[in-house]
Structure formats: C-alpha cells, structure tokens
Amino acid sequence: MFNSLSDRLQDTFDRLRGKGRLTEDDINVAMREIRMALLEADVNYRVVKEFVARCKEKCLTADVLSSLSPAQNVVKVVLDELTVLLGSTDSRLTLAQNRTPNVIMLVGLQGSGKTTAAAKLAYLLKGQGHSPLLAACDTHRPAAADQLETLGSEIGVPVFRGDGKDAVAVAEGSIKEAVDRLCDIVIVDTAGRLQIDEEMMQEAVAIKAAVRPDQILMVVDAMTGQDIVNVVTEFANRVDFDGVIMSKLDGDARGGGALSVREVTGKPIKFVSMGEKPDSLEVFHPDRMAKRILGMGDVVGIIEQAQKVADEQQVADAERMLREGFTMDDLLSQMQQIRKMGGLQKLMGMIPGMERAMAQAPQAASDEQLTRIEAIIHSMTKEERARPKIINGQRRRRIALGSGRSVQEVNQLIKQWGEMNKMMGRMKGMMQPGAGGKKNRRAMQQMMRNMGGGQGLPF
Amino acid sequence: MGLLDSLRSGLQRSREAINEIFYMGGEVDEDFWEDLEDTLVMGDMGAEVAMRVTDDLREQAARENLTRADQLRDALARRLAAEFPSAKRDPFTDLPSCVLFVGINGAGKTTTVGKLAGRAREAGASCLIGGADTFRAAAIEQLEVWGQRAGVDVVTRERGADPASVCYEVVEEAERRGAELVLIDTAGRLHTSADLMRELAKVVNVTRKRCQLPVAVVLVIDATTGQNGLNQAREFNDALELDGLIVTKLDGTAKGGIALAISSQLGLPIYRIGVGEAIDDLQTFDALDFCRALVGEGM
Q1: B positions 10-69 inside 8 Å of A (CB)
Q2: For A324-331, what is the mean pLDDT?
Q3: Which one of A313, B51, B141, B205 has the minimum C-beta count within 10 Å?
Q4: What is the edge-to-edge ordering of all strands in the sheet holding B127-132?
C-alpha cells in the first residue's frame, strides 16, 4: 500500500533505474504504475488516461538525452508533462486598472473553505498595500457572517454584512460601502452551493451580474475525488470563474484534483491554501507542484520559507555565533525556527529523497525528538545554556530529572552540541580572509563528512 | 419508499454511468469488465477495491453462469453491500447515548449535529448539544442557531476555551438534567496535524472517562472526498478508535465510493447519510439500498 504519489512513482522508477536500457514493456509497466498512482492521488480517471497515453507516446518518440539514464529520461518526460498539465506559468490576480473598487468573488461547494480563503486573500492584499473590504454574502449558512466578521477583525479588515438576507443586495451594498470607506478591493464571500442546485446557481449568477467582478475564484478542496470534474465543469459553464484556490493542501492529500481542474476547464490554479493562519495563502507554482508530486522535493519552497522567517536579528545572531561560539540558546532558537517553518516533517518532506528515507526510519528524525531536546534545554540554567562546558555530572543528573529524560539523553545532547561547536569553529576559519584555498577545501570536505555521518546535527 | 427514492435521486448520476455499461448489450465481453472497473474507480471507490470487486464478480459470473446484464447488476449490488459491516448499535436511537462528532474542516459536522438534534427533539427525546469547537470563528454562533431551530439547548464556552473542559461541563450538565442524547460538536482539523489530533484525543478521552452514558465517536466525512478520505479515516481511527461514520453531501454528483473503501477497510459501520439540505435528509444507512441505488434499476 502506497501512501502517496511520490512514494509510488519513486518505487516504479527505482525498479526502472536498475536497468541500463528500457524496452517498450518496461515503459508499459511504468505507465501502469503511474496510472494507478495518479488514480490514487484522485486525478480524474479520464485525465489520467489521456495523460498516460501522452507520456507513453513521448517516452517512445522523445529525443533521448544521452546525459540521462533511460529511467531518468522517463522521469523527465513525466515531469515535463505534469508541469505542462498544471500550467506552465505562475498565474496572478488580474484586476482592472481603471476601476475602483475592484471586485473579487469567491464561489465553491459547501465546506470547501471559501470564508477562510476570503479572509486570507484580504490579508494578502492588505499586505500588498491594498485596502480590502469583505462582503458577507453567505446569507444561508447560520453565523457565516459572524465568522467572516470575526476573521475580518483579527486581520483588521472591515466586513460589510448588509441586511444579511438578500445576498445580491448585500453584494451591491458592499460596493457602495467600499466607495464610502475608500476601500479599493471588495472580496465577495458567497454561500456554498452544489453545482446541481439550480436555485443556488441562479443566485451566484445574480450576484455576478450585480457586482461584475474582475475576478471570480473558485475554492476547491484539495481532497476532492473524481467528482471534481463534474463540479468545476458546471461552475465554469454557469458562473465562469477565472481561477482556482486549492484549499487544505497542508494535509497529505496529493491534490490530484489540481491536475483535473486544469485539464478539464483550462482554468489556472492561482493560490494554494496551506493552513489555518491568515498568512497561509501562497501563490501556486505548477513546476514545484509537479516536482513535489513526483517526489523530487520542493527545494525552492524551502528557501522561500526560510527567507520569510529569517530576519535581521537572526543574521546578527549568526555573526555572534561565529564570533563567540554556539550556545544552547542558539540551538533552541534554531529548533524554534524549524517549528515556525512548519515542523521537521514538513521541511524534510520538501527535500528530495528525504521523504522516503523518513518512511524507512521514522524514529530517526521526528518532531517529538525536537520536543525532547527542547525540554532538556529548558531544564538548564541560563549560565549552563551560555556555557554548556560547565555542565558536570551533578548538573546532568539535575537536568535529566527536570526534563524527565534520561542522563544518557542529556549526555548525547551535550556531545552533539560539542560537534556543532567544532563545525562552527571550522566555518569561522574558512571565512577569515587569507585562508588558503587548499585548506579551505579540506575543511569543507571534512565538514561534509561529519554531516553525512549523521553526527553533525542532533536531529 | 421515501428513503429509497431520495437515495436514488441523490445517486442519479452514478446510476446513469453504470447503466450505460449495462445497456451495452445482453452478453458481456472484455470491454464490459474494463468499463465496469473504470466506472467504479470514477465513483471514488479506489483502484484497489474496484479491481477486487470486479475480479470477484467475474469469478462469480463464470461460476454461476451469469451472462445477462441484470443478473450481473444484482450480483454486483449484493457483492458491494457485503463490503459494508453492519452497525451493532445505533447511537442515535439506542438511548441514552453521547456522541462526539469529529472530522476535517468543512465536512459538515456542525450541520449534522443541528439536524440530528432536530430529529431527536421531534422523536421526543431529551437532547443536549455541546459546542466544543472553540477554535473556528463563529462556530459557536452557528451551533446556537441550529440549537434554536431545533429547540435544543446548547452548552458551550467562549471562543478559545479548552475543548476538553467544555466536554466535561456538557456531560455534567447532561447528567444534571438527565438528557438522553448528548451531541458534541468538535473543531474540524486535518488528520496530519499531530498537535490538533492529540488535543482531540484528549477531548475524546475526557468524555469517555467522565460520561456515564455509552459514548460513540463518529467521523463525519464529505462524499466528495477522494482517496485521501481513507488516510483521514485511518488517522482519526488510530488516534480516537472511531465507532462509525456519517457520510454527508451525497446529494451532489459525488458517488461516495470512498465510504465503501473506508467502511470495509476499517470495519466501521455507516450510521447516517446526508442526501439533502433538509433535516429529514439525514437518513439511516442501508447497505443494500445504497448499493442498489448505486448500481441501478430493475432489481
């Protein structure tokens, strides 16, 4: 039983990789695996059929790059096709320049996450210097307007509720309100509706006619199954949306629906929603998504995420660490940094190959281990954290008791701290001007060896 | 007939899809089997289950010499129905009872609680709603509106309160009043969020320990969910030891095939299915009716 598309494809390609040359039969086997994997990832059945046929065609006819092994060539073909299918460029919001206020309307099924997405979108636009207004046009679900109002007040964005009865009237009223309040963008949150509910679809069309939105975004749950095709086709025909927000992508759903939506309607995925906090709406990158699906890791994603959390204070800290050595507090703050970025598991999942390594040895690096180390450090005094060298046997015992861990674990942590500090020392040597090229390289190699040996970092 | 009819109309599309196959001709050929498998996959049943079911049916066809489409249809319905375990106890009618509703965001937990409370009230049971979703904005207000509609009291606390302590209070209040049916709504969470799952496990443990009534933990799952539904159910089951399922939003074009996969693989009975917006559209689940409606007419 495979858990994810990544695992599955990786396994297929591992089998292919073992061979020097691929026959048509090999390709057939690989394509069958890909078909099953895509189906398990909820890519629509018809989309899978066409996709696999196209890939096979390409595999048989494509110019074979001599620099790649036959199996790598198959990977490349599949990756390229997947990227094409997901749309080859980043898609952004297009708003009319000469219109104030601009209007963005959100539609979707019940429970897909429209209200949450509306608040996230408002937060994003506010951060870009806009002044958004949220319009609560979900007059059907109990307390939907209350929910929007609460979310709005949390992010400091005004919410227009109107009379709370007629969705079209609320939408119209929100435009006037936006003009009065000098807001430049109105985000219209609508009620969830089934695509076969005639009355509700009429309402959506009526809201659209009333406010003439610049952009209509459809919110689609990343976990949706095969039915996604019926849903988006009907919404595209009736309301004609411009793009899609994929919600709940922070779960482990592979989001195969993204492929289906793109293929069936041709509409781009514009944003992905990755969590519960208002800042978790991200621009969709088809290339990254394709790579992630293929288990090739989202390295760019990691870097961007790291950039987001790094601030000047941390740069200053890094300099201090090089100058004065690495303290337990530094270790603690680094671990908190990892947490901020979504935890070790999420981070590792983005690194190529790491996901599989973790599946094989899940206890080797877990977020729980981080928690344990944190507990140990928290049980140290300020002095001990700044100068771990003073921690003697007695102190170790006290720390172990305080943190509820064993003395061995405390010892291990201190040993690892020592290793890290040594590494810091070497880095310092390399950075000093005038250090010889050869020496430099040797130090670097030594460092890589240490890290490769799994001793460099405590997690 | 009311139940069967609305089930049928709810599952119209899937039936049509399967009908297309069965009307292709009297005698079945290789294409028939392949199309059948594909249709089951399209119904979110999962490639693995679909293949197993088709293979079994194929064997049965050979063994019992079934060559006509209607025979196969009947056999398929029975075959699929056999995949569902049956419920030993219905926590909504075998009173007294305390039920916790869990699931991912937007599955329809709050709405389900509201509808069930209305139903219980109509049936004359003394019912109490507990609002342990203290996380989502306006979840409490939403539940209170449902409580007013159903004429059932809601016990809850302010937003941000500890959900386990809310449950404790709900159970206390229920015991004080002698309520027969206690329905507790919890905050939606993704099964991948370890912290939130631990929080939920605590909520469930507190309720199970404190409550004198038999406690059932019910996973609410959206019928449009794809194969990830199985992961969801598995994680929730591992963390909470679920008692059963409620499948919502079956009134769309979604086939709800994932319900079959979850129910059969985890051995969880389906207590109710939602086939519409009205209170009465939350119905008792009958495996054979469900599968007959899914497979088609002419039984």
Answers
A1: 13, 38, 41-44, 46-47
A2: 77
A3: A313
A4: B153-156, B127-132, B181-186, B97-102, B215-222, B244-248, B270-274, B282-284
- Per-residue pLDDT band at A97 (split at 50, 70, 90): confident
Q: Is the separation of the CB atoms in A114 and A241 below 8 Å?
A: no
Residue type present at position A431: M
Identify which of A148, A195, A223 has the shortest CB distance to residue B229: A223
Phi, psi at residue A380, to the nearest 5°? -90, 155
What's the gap in Å between the CA of A50 and the closest CA on chain B? 14
Verify whether the Cβ–Cβ distance B138 to A196 is below 8 Å.
no
Contact, A41 vs A5, CB < 8 A? yes
| A458 membership: H or E segment, kind and range | none
Tokens in use for B274? 């939602």
The first and second tokens of residue B160, run together, are 């941000």
Residue A36: pLDDT over 70 = yes
Q: What is the dihedral of CA A199, A204, A209, A213, to 10 degrees?
A: 180
Q: Residue B285 carries which side chain, given as an amino acid letter?
A: F
Q: B282: part of which helix (H) or strand (E)?
A: strand B282-284
Which DSSP letter does residue A43 get? -
**B283 to chain A nearest CA, in Å?**
19
ipTM of the complex: 0.80
Cβ of A146 and B227 within 8 Å? no
The residue assigned the tokens 């709406």 is A281
B294 touches chain A (CB under 8 A): no
Q: Could you report the per-residue pLDDT of B210-245, keeping only the tens digit for each?
A: 888 899 999 999 988 888 888 899 999 999 999 999
Q: Are A84 and A189 in contact (CB under 8 A)?
A: no
